[in-house]
Design goal:
This protein has 10 helices and 11 strands. It has 257 residues and is α/β, with parallel strands linked by helices. The longest helix has 12 residues.
């Protein structure tokens, strides 16, 4: 029998808890550690739609990247039915759905979010972007113009669109930071990168950054690349477990062009 605790422990073997940022909340956040799990749904986020998908599939657990509760941007203070997060958590409990979340520890882990992002973009010779191990630096097989790299990013990550600033350089040495990694722009420049692919950049980031091609490819596209890796890892670790990627969850941001 595979339990929720078994799955949490196995994910921690891959992405140790100590790699998570101090403010983060990771691990088994909802459910009974002793609960038997036969089917797992993997998604970037645990939304109401994802939870309903899990119920329809007969899953006992959802494994996600983003924490479902007590994260820095949305702390849980109540569990009310007239609050969106409260409704979601009540739904999980009512349907006996466990929720296990691997966030910044999976960003930093070998083979985690940033390695998956770098590989999706065709980078090799990877090294760490910073001491937190959140980002990666790699190189393309050959130097290419920025206008050739941009559509490759869109195609590789499935972006609906992207924002960028032309730093006046061809693309060869590329830094990546899945999700909101604007704070690592100085490290990318200091390590001689010509391009930085990340998400959630502000206007001033584009305005003030010089000598670096800056690409905002979106939070969902730069992190969703890890979901298949999570699915494959769990399927290999627990051969009798059915592990499915969410078919309903998509980028919350749409573009009108």
């Amino acid at each position: 029998m595979t339990t929720a605790h078994d799955i949490e422990r196995s994910l921690y073997d891959w992405a140790p808890r100590e790699l998570a940022m101090d403010w983060d909340n990771v691990g088994l956040l909802v459910g009974d550690p002793a609960q038997e799990v036969r089917r797992v749904l993997v998604a970037l986020d645990i939304t109401q739609g994802v939870a309903e998908e899990a119920v329809s599939l007969g899953a006992q657990m959802i494994v996600s990247h983003h924490p479902v509760m007590n994260c820095a941007w949305h702390e849980v203070q109540t569990l009310r039915a007239d609050d969106a997060q409260g409704r979601l958590l009540r739904y999980l409990v009512r349907h006996d759905l466990a929720a296990c979340c691997m966030h910044t520890n999976l960003d930093a882990a070998d083979g985690g979010v940033n390695d998956c992002l770098a590989h999706a973009l065709g980078l090799s010779g990877l090294s760490m972007l910073n001491e937190e191990k959140i980002g990666r630096i790699g190189t393309l097989s050959c130097e290419i113009p920025l206008e050739e790299f941009l559509p490759a990013v869109v195609k590789s990550l499935g972006c609906s669109g992207l924002r960028f600033r032309d730093g006046g350089k061809p693309v060869h040495r590329v830094a990546v930071g899945g999700g909101a990694c604007r704070d690592y722009i100085p490290q990318a420049i200091a390590q001689g990168c010509d391009t930085f692919v990340t998400a959630d950049l502000r206007y001033n980031d584009f305005l003030d950054t010089h000598g670096l091609n800056l690409i905002d490819a979106g939070h969902y596209p730069t992190e969703n690349v890890v979901c298949e890796a999570v699915r494959a890892y769990l399927a290999k670790s627990f051969p009798l477990l059915e592990v499915v990627r969410s078919a309903s969850h998509h980028d919350a941001i749409q573009y009108y062009l």
